[in-house]
Design brief:
Structural class of chain A: alpha/beta
Distance between the termini of chain A: 63 Å
Helix content of chain A: 25-40%
Mean pLDDT of chain A: 86
Strand order of the largest sheet of chain A: 2-3-4-5-6-7-8-9
Oligomer: homodimer
Chain lengths: 670, 670
């Protein structure tokens, strides 16, 4: 991840020229979400169509240009992040984790650059297409895919665009790209300039894509003049581009002057300044050379003396960028900032935090991470089982045409895709084998040593060898803040072989803005039923079942108990889902985004049991005692889920556990 | 309603004979709603189909024979009620009210007799077909339509059955009917016996209808012998009948012996004893003559001396029937009782109450009265506006193929049927014009005199002329128990010209078994947002709007304000419904059966404004001052609905009203 080792194509340098002029009305529709105080005749109200899902989060239904317009109208500040595709599969795993972490800060979008030499439209895990696909579908990020057009046939370009659309990508940054060879000739029928690509997209895909184009605050280096370049930019917009991201620059005045000039010649679409935080001496030098930009003297003077001190240069770069950003925002002409991250996290995050536009606690539109695929816009309910494996859930439901819509039961029992390949890069654990062995035990001696792993994961304390257990096969992250509320009880039951993998406390109407359990728009109330899911031995199951059939739990607790062979014991009404998370909002229908669904539980149990083998047992040699212990658990334990329906009362599931332990201690009493 | 004036056909006498024997497996499927403790493989669970709506009330999805079977299995006692079609349109209005009242007691079904001479399959409001249709669709009663077959062509019979199916009728009592003339000959190809009709139904309509046939505890009078008659009955069952209702009898031993004999020859379907409470001397005599039954000596001895004392006879009849019913129930062989009501209410209700099987407070499956049309089984959400006019709502949505399913917004804006004919008998007010004038004023002198009518309706006190106002054009019944909770505040605002027509208090999680606000299965919690709907003058609207825009209400209260011309002011999010009643139940999804829906509100306002004219203004002479006052209100007032979204806090809508009045009192302060 040394920026000096990056190919130049991975730096934000675009080469292009604008040629053709053709009127095109870029329709940047601004959607007003509330008809407050509006007066409309009855006929029109009657005839209007309704949304199929409650618009809890208007942005889920908006195009990027609409979201951007909304922020320009409201004056809310925002940012976006540019990444380039990694060179290795391991790099892809790390980049996806970075997407997840940087996604927490609330970027309006990210973009992924396009590298003609790197097979960018292929299915390789390092291709631009697949990285963008992963960002949209698995990380839930609004994503812009770069695309260059020179030296490509119309068919190739159309093929890329069709694939992008199929994958759920909705935004294209249309670029010319580097010509091959020193001299290059325009092809009469070909794609010579970005505007050709803009026109082609509008012609072949109508208004499906939002299109971004590049702007040059100092004029394109190959342009006849600054003025000619401005006219080319206007032509790109007229041809159908929705917004502009600029090349990097070193002084806020440069951008502000450019923006005024754009406005003066009638460019009205959003223009987003491209911010390049200086992160190293060499990357700066090479960038400048390629982009033909001149580094201002005052910057050179600071940098030259510290050129071998990476930390010092980065600190300076953060300082410099933050102060330029502040000037831009203060100008009143800029509400969004685009960051060339160079795939690095620290500098950009630091700048955003200093500017106060990194959202420390972004409001969750729903209790689970939404996907940004347009098909999944209507998705508003998921089974609780995949709570810690949302990417697996998305993967296994990616072929669905229809999402459980308003009610899980509405969807006619869709089949979940198989999860055979646990090594898909976007599903892969962040930890390598050696780390996993340190956490989960180089050698297991008994079932109890497995109990200990769970207990260390819950407690957060280091294990006997001094390693913290930060993940389990079913949870790639440390305990959620919400689960922390249950820590003490979880610790207690795991010690006794109740191996918990998922749980939530009951909530009887907390404000939707609650920092831990809140979700959805403000002014609402959220509710939960207590939930507990765990593996345990058949001896424990026998006692548990006796307890669950006691009068005090019989009508109160719903249970599903299943082993790897699918032998299933339940007291749930026929295949009906049980809503375990719901929210009540002003002027809305009730939203019930999380359910315990008996049908999907049978799919989940296959995955949950398989994770014992795929992620844990396979760490050990075949026939080794450690492996046989995990295999034994896989073959003989049961997976259990429990719901306490009495959400207004104290969670009784811990008492169920207590009663079970008591029964196990004194088996003759029952 | 003097039973002595009834045509004989209206008495429960069936003439028929059983002839043919053909095996038919009557599939009386017994549905078990809980798979408690059941063990099933994962594959089968995965493949099972789901219900499209949460099965809150399993019975809504069951056929009559399944409901009956469920009660036989559980031992729960039940009853059913037989009615005959009225002779006049007025009689139809009264009968529908009676259905509503007697429906409160929780009959398993009602049945409507078939009168070949009375054009029973026509569209007349007094036809058997239309009365049964009204019972099913508008009163929500499981209904059995009688049908006779002799002297009718196959085409006529098929036509009747098709019509019944189209109207949502699901159960037929297949009878022979009276032959015309003294002597009658069997037609070779025709319908000579009830069994022909049973076979025809099964042949033409497969398993669509549940079929009932008649049984004769003493043997059919025309049968060769008691034994031959039993064999005929068995043949009818084998041909496809699902259950048997018997002719009346006077001693429990008669029925119990008959039942044993039926079982002995292999009749296994339910056999329901027909109970005839003696309600008058003449009706008994005529019935006995026609049915060729002999009245036991001990009954004759009691009745003869009191034959001119109707009350004494009725009291005796109640006593006699109740004691016979008790013997039947105590035998352990009987769980259901079928009552020949003769369209009268008191005797049957009294017997049922004495037996303890009249449900004083039947649990409501949903907060509104469900319809029994099979198409509406999935209906689980309605707009609140028609809360007091459920029959009108059903009428206006009867053409819908699809009901808002799980979410109001799912239904793609179905058009509501027009409500032009306010005189449809099932929508008609129970009170005649003279009574309405007494309640609503023989003469109105000002808008204030209209305010008073509303105030008297709310308070329940008699008006100046000493008449209680028991209904309003928007409410055909006195205040609901729930609305009574708001009485004091409603009284106060109506005096000031806030003419309330619909309201509900807020409820923050009351048990679903709450006698006033509860609904749905036990073990759940119900919630409501406070709601208030009223007409008021434009002066009041101006002040109200100022109040609603105050900060403390702005985000808390949703409003829709509309006049007769459809001019519409709202702060609701775009056409989204606001759920105002919902329930959380063990092991279920959340149910949200009542919404404030902006689209349907525009349809409701047409109806709500029209009621001023159709039901009130038209009581007065054209051009009369009274009529002009109502017309003025119709033309100038606004219809307002308010929802307080803060269901956990104290209802703020009364404070909104207070603030509005204050503003009106001191207009300069604002």
């Amino acid at each position: 991840m040394d920026p000096a080792s990056l190919g130049w194509q991975q730096l934000p340098v675009w080469k292009e020229r604008i040629m053709v002029n053709e009127p095109h009305s870029a329709s940047s529709g601004s959607a007003s979400s509330r008809s407050e105080g509006s007066s409309s005749g009855s006929e029109s109200s009657k005839d209007s169509s309704r949304c199929s899902t409650p618009v809890l989060d208007a942005e889920r239904h908006e195009r990027l240009r609409e979201k951007m317009r909304r922020r320009y109208d409201s004056g809310d500040k925002w940012f976006s992040l540019e990444f380039f595709p990694p060179r290795t599969a391991n790099g892809a795993v790390n980049l996806i984790s970075r997407f997840d972490r940087m996604g927490m800060g609330g970027p309006l979008f990210i973009d992924v650059t396009w590298h003609p030499a790197g097979d960018p439209g292929s299915d390789k895990e390092t291709s631009s297409m697949i990285i963008a696909n992963t960002a949209v579908n698995y990380c839930g990020l609004e994503t812009v895919l770069h695309m260059t057009c020179c030296n490509q046939t119309k068919e190739e370009i159309t093929g890329h665009l069709q694939k992008a659309k199929r994958l759920g990508l909705k935004n294209i940054m249309a670029l010319r790209g580097d010509p091959i060879g020193e001299e290059w000739e325009e092809e009469v029928e070909g794609f010579n300039y970005a505007i050709d690509l803009v026109k082609h997209i509008r012609c072949e895909f109508d208004d499906y894509f939002d299109i971004c184009v590049a702007g040059y605050p100092k004029g394109h280096p190959e342009a006849e003049s600054y003025e000619a370049d401005l006219r080319h930019l206007k032509e790109k917009v007229s041809a159908g581009a929705d917004f502009i991201i600029t090349q990097l620059f070193f002084r806020s005045e440069t951008f502000l002057a450019f923006m005024k000039d754009c406005q003066a010649i009638g460019i009205t679409c959003p223009i987003v300044p491209g911010i390049f935080p200086i992160q190293g001496y060499h990357s700066l030098r090479q960038l400048v050379k390629l982009s033909k930009l001149e580094v201002p003297q005052e910057i050179k003077e600071v940098i030259e003396p510290i050129k071998d001190n990476d930390a010092a240069i980065r600190n300076y770069g953060v300082e410099l960028a933050a102060s330029m950003c502040r000037e831009l925002l203060d100008s009143g002409m800029v509400s969004g900032l685009h960051f060339y991250t160079l795939n690095r996290e620290v500098a950009t995050t630091e700048i955003l935090k200093r500017l106060g536009i990194w959202k420390e606690d972004p409001r969750r539109p729903l209790p689970w991470a939404v996907s940004a695929h347009p098909k999944r816009r209507v998705e508003d309910v998921r089974p609780i089982f995949w709570a810690s494996r949302p990417k697996s859930y998305i993967h296994r439901t990616q072929e669905w045409d229809d999402f459980p819509n308003g009610r899980w039961g509405n969807s006619s029992s869709p089949a979940f895709g198989e999860l055979k390949d646990y090594y898909l890069f976007y599903l892969k654990s962040k930890s390598p084998r050696e780390e996993l062995l340190k956490m989960w035990g180089e050698e297991l001696t008994s079932e109890e040593s497995v109990f200990e792993v769970f207990t260390f994961y819950i407690s957060g304390e280091p294990n006997g060898e001094g390693h913290k257990v930060t993940c389990l096969p079913w949870n790639d992250d440390p305990l959620a803040a919400e689960t922390n509320l249950l820590k003490e009880q979880l610790d207690k039951v795991n010690r006794r072989g109740i191996l918990t993998i998922n749980s939530q406390p009951n909530i009887n109407g907390r404000p939707s803005t609650d920092p831990i359990v809140g979700w959805g728009p403000s002014g609402g109330y959220v509710f939960q039923k207590a939930y507990l899911e765990f593996f345990t031995s058949s001896e424990n199951i026998t006692a548990l079942l006796k307890v669950l059939k006691m009068k005090k739990y019989e009508l109160r607790v719903n249970y599903h108990i299943v082993n790897v062979r699918g032998e299933n014991i339940t007291n749930a009404p026929d295949l009906q889902p049980n809503a375990v998370t719901w929210g009540i909002f002003p002027g809305r229908e009730i939203i019930q985004p999380t359910v315990v669904d008996p049908v999907s539980f049978m799919y989940w149990k296959d995955e949950a049991f398989a994770l014992w083998i795929e992620q844990w047992a396979k760490l050990y040699e075949e026939e080794s005692p450690s492996r046989m212990i995990i295999q034994y658990i896989h073959d003989n334990y049961y997976l259990v889920n429990l719901v306490d329906n009495e959400f207004p009362l104290e969670n009784c599931l811990w008492q169920v556990m207590e009663d079970t332990f008591e029964l196990l201690n004194c088996p003759t009493e029952q």
